[in-house]
Amino acid sequence: MIHARTLAKTTMCVAVLAVGCDEEAYGPDAVESQEWHHLELSSELGGGGDSGGEADLGGATVVGVEVLDVTIPKSLHAQGLAIPAKLVRPKWSKAVGQKPAMMVLHGSGGLLKDGKTKAAPCSEQMESQFTAWSDRLAKLGYTVLLPSSYSARGFCDKHSQASKMPKTFDENTEQILGRIYDLDAATRYLCDRPEVDCDRMGLLGFSQGGTMTMLGLHWQIEHALQYFRETKANTVDIPVPDVKPGRPDFKVGIAYYPGCGFDGTVPLSTSTKVAVENKYLPTAPLFILHGSEDSLVEHCSTEHGAGSREIQAGQVASKQKVPNLYDITVYPNAGHSFDSAGAKADGGTAAGNLAAQKAAMAVALAQIDMALGD
Q1: What are the tens digits of pLDDT across the range 232-244?
Q2: What is the pTM of this model?
Q3: Between helices 172-192 and 221-232, what is the axis angle to 10°?
Q4: Per-residue b/e over 64-92, b at no fewer than 16 CB within 10 Å?
Q5: Is 216 in contact with 113 (CB distance < 8 Å)?
Q6: Which of 25, 10, 22, 1 has its CA nearest to residue 347?
Q7: Cα separation of 279 and 302, whole Å?
Q8: Domain locations along the chain
Q9: What is the structure's pLDDT at 185?
Q10: Residue 56, pLDDT score
Q11: Regarding the domain delimited by 36-372, which CATH topology (the fold level of the hierarchy) does it fall under?
């Protein structure tokens, strides 16, 4: 169902045209700068900085944060795969009942730091970016689920551990398909948590996780799987089953520097002759935060490339007579991974990446609060 809710459009920054690519290559996104860990935000956002900003809801306050290792059971997964995850949740000063939740999706660098032995490819520690984001959101009162799609399949980092990837997950398209099923299972798991208000859940993803955020809001994800199975099933080494009906909805999505081509899982054509069901439209407010010097912006923005998804969203909304909830901000002189890497991001300038890092975080926290806050 399309949610008939509109939000103010964020301002699209003016920047030069980014170079596009046919096959989306997600650059390493685990490089981090020292500046990132101390980034401060203005208090008017409700406190998003690492130095404070704990939620105060009806006299109940967040007095701490706990991190749990959990497993999303294989019974929820269409491919029968159990997914390890981190659950980060606030500790309250008194009982508060069900509260909103966020799911955070990792990029191609994985959720966890590399392990120190061949027998243990992944550490139990999250990459610093995800430690900081989950802590920040938990202090604002959100329960945060972070599925680990890579460690579930025996490796930790797509770039440094490519040789460990299974045959069923070693191609970009297989990764997107597999993570669609991971997301489906994780959504059901998060909704069933006793502390979670299932009617107030949001998505936040980075790089490949940003792509998954977009697909998590796709109005025709079930049809997309069926269409792929009918037209391209012989191109991958995995079965492409349907997902069960009734997956809970998300109320907002924040996608940092995603690849919008979706690696062939959803057609890119903007032709008016193409069935509307084969075009992209988010079912909830989607905020894409991208850099002008990131080649992955190609299919996301009409000002910086072909903008196929932006065009499709407009076409579907017009055809179906529903709101177009697709929003993109492109930051000038910013490259890939500006959130985690800051000045050392892949492309752009140091100043442009630091400015994008700060501005994008402000947008992300404000829109999450607008969609899910009390």
Answers
A1: 999 999 999 999 9
A2: 0.87
A3: 150
A4: ebeeeeeebeeebbbbebebbbbbbbbeb
A5: no
A6: 25
A7: 16
A8: 36-372
A9: 98
A10: 64
A11: Rossmann fold (3.40.50)
